[in-house]
Each structure stands twice: as C-alpha cells, then as structure tokens.
Amino acid sequence: MTRRAGNRVTLLAGGGHFFPDLIAALDRAEREIHLESYIFEPDETGLAVAEALVRAAARGVRVKVLLDGFGARTFPAPLAARLREAGVALMFFRPELGSWRLRMYRLRRMHRKLAVIDARVAYVGGINIIDDANTMPGAGKRHDYAVRVEGPLLADVYPAVRRLWLLVRWSAIGHRPHHSPPLAVAAGPAGDQVAEFLQRDNLRHRREIEEAYLDAIRAARREVLIANAYFLPGRRFRQALVEAARRGVRVTLVLQGRTDHRWFQLVERALYRYFLENGIEIYEFHASELHAKAAVVDGAWATVGSSNIDPFSLLLAREANVVVYERGFAETLHARVCEAMADGAHAIQRREWSHVPWHVRFASWALYGLVRLLMGWLGMARRL
C-alpha cells in the first residue's frame, strides 16, 4: 500500500453522475482504454457504454474490455460480436463453461469495477455497467458510488488493470502473447489529495483492503460510518467495531433492506443482536437497492470501491478500492450517505429485534452456521 499525494479524487454518486462522466472520458480517449466490470447489462446504459467503446475503437484507440465470466455470463453474443467486429478486445475472467460445482477456484471471481483511459484518468468504485433503474421490481434507483481519479495514483491503478489483462490473455491463449508496450502514466500532480489504491487478490494483496479498514477503525476516535451492500464481517472486524463503540466512537452501519439475495440477508441479520447489544447503530436502507461499498472514519478517512465486507470479497474475489485522506472528500461522502439514510433508511431498534419471531432468528443463525461451515470446507474458517 502506497499513499500518494497530489491527486484529484472526485466522488460520483450513482449512475446518473458516473455514466455521463465515464462516457465523456471514453469519447475523449486517444490511445488506450481498459474497462473491467463484474456485470455488463445490455440495457440502455450498457448499450450507451458499448457504443462509446465502438466509437473509440473506430478512432484507432486500443480498447480492452474484461468482464467476469460469472457476473457477465448472460452477456449477449450479438453484442460481443459487434464489439469484436469494431476492434474491441473482449475477454472474460474465468468463463463459466459447464455445470456449477462447488470448487474454490470457481468462487474466485473478478468483482472489480475499473476503467483507465489513456493512463491519465481512472474510475474506481462499486458501479457495474448496468442502469440504476435496472433493479428488483418496485425498487427505486440503485444506490452506489464511484470515484474519478487523476494524478499520481494512476501509477498504481494503470499497472493493476494492465497486469490482470495480460494474465487473463496469457491463460486464455496458453502462451505469452505479443502485447503493446505500456503507456507513459500521466502521474503529475492534479490536485492536493492524498490517496491510496487498494487491491485484493490471491498473491501480493490478499488482505490489503481488510487491513486498511481495520487500521482506520482501530484508530477511530469519533465516528465510523459504513455503508455496505453485503456485510458479514469476520471475527477481527467485528471485534474492531465493538472495541471502537466501547471507547465512545459512534459506529453506524447502513445495510440493505431490499435485496435479491434473501438468504444472505438472513445470515447478515444473525449478527444484529450482537452489534446492537454492543452499542452499534444499524440502519436498513429500503428506498431502493443499496449496492454501496463505502466508509468514512472521523471525517478524514474515506473509502469507495468494489469490496463488500463479506467472505466472498475479503477472501476470494479480486477487488479494488480507493482510500482518500482528505476532509473535503470525506465530508462529501459522509453527507451523501447521511442523505440516503434520511431519505430511505430506518433504524433497527434493539427492542424491535428482540421481537423478531423465533423461527426467523433460528433461520438466520442456521444460515450463518452454514456459511461458516462452507468457509471451513474451503480451508478458511480461521478468518471468520
């Protein structure tokens, strides 16, 4: 992990801000585009992004798109053919080729959402290539965040996307392919923010994102605010939150109220009583689908990225977050999360949770135990 000064990191709240900014950057591209996404839906937004990629390729820009083989398993063949015919290089990370079997390597997905244009601007966050309105019936627009990054942090982001592209290309072809040389990174000062680019993979960055969270929580003196779509922390993470609350830190969790993964929500709720009894506030967001992976600590440390706080993100998937050490950015993110809470979240009261029917609580704990058993079967139970 390397902190770099001189960055300009801009918060993009929701697809309404993110996609116009991304498409404008794609249309300004002159030499190279890298785009990574877990999901790429052929809805109105997805097609608009695809057309921007086609336009870039027509200008002679090298366009490289990497999608996850499970998250984008329904990516339509006609759209893939259109992209490739236009000159877009399209690959899938660990494509699903057969029936699903419970093997660890098939759970190691590429969950990152990254874009780098001309090695001069990058986008990092939790927003897939999918319209905010393309969500579960009856829900409002999906709530999520991304950031635009300019400055010295590109020296970390660009090699990361290039390295993964080459790795997947090598594994797909079976030998080391010919590839274009890297661009010179536009890593000169672009602002006054100190920031870090964090990854999670299975080699050099296995615990980088989790450790950054733990360091910030353990150093907290006033407030920890976490908005996370899938929140099932391990023992060390739970203890860090409880210890912070015991020393007087206000710890607030903003979690999904609406979800298309009902079983996961039951597992997550198994921990509610423990958190509530230890002074941690819990809010469930019901206005729409909460897809955020963001946090603010003491108004000076903030992170936005793709990593949930669950075993999938922290132990198995490839993830990417940006941490910003600057009060202006942290306060902006804090304000956006608090606005969402005011508009569409309600507090879970300790007395309210104590009246939840016994069979619901039993189901929560049974599913929680099943997750622990699964992680143990994968040889990872010590981390839960």
Automatic annotation (TrEMBL):
Subcellular compartments: Cell membrane
Q: Which residues form the active site?
A: H111, K113, D118, H291, K293, D298
One BP term from GO: cardiolipin biosynthetic process
Residues forming the PLD phosphodiesterase domain are: 106-133, 286-313
**EC?**
2.7.8.-
Which GO molecular-function terms appear in the entry? cardiolipin synthase activity
Which CDD domains does the protein's record reference?
PLDc_CLS_1 (cd09110), PLDc_ybhO_like_2 (cd09159)
Q: Give a yes or no for keyword Cell membrane in this entry.
A: yes
**Record's bilayer topology term:** Peripheral membrane protein
In its keyword annotation, does this UniProt entry include Signal?
Answer: no
Keyword annotations? Cell membrane, Lipid biosynthesis, Lipid metabolism, Membrane, Phospholipid biosynthesis, Phospholipid metabolism, Transferase
Q: What is its main location?
A: membrane
Listed GO CC annotations: plasma membrane
Reaction(s) catalysed by this chain, per the record, are: 2 a 1,2-diacyl-sn-glycero-3-phospho-(1'-sn-glycerol) = a cardiolipin + glycerol
HAMAP family tied to this protein: Cardiolipin_synth_ClsB
Instruction: State the similarity comment.
Output: Belongs to the phospholipase D family. Cardiolipin synthase subfamily. ClsB sub-subfamily.
Question: What's this protein's function?
Answer: Catalyzes the phosphatidyl group transfer from one phosphatidylglycerol molecule to another to form cardiolipin (CL) (diphosphatidylglycerol) and glycerol.
This chain's protein is named Cardiolipin synthase B
- Name the species this protein comes from: Parasulfuritortus cantonensis
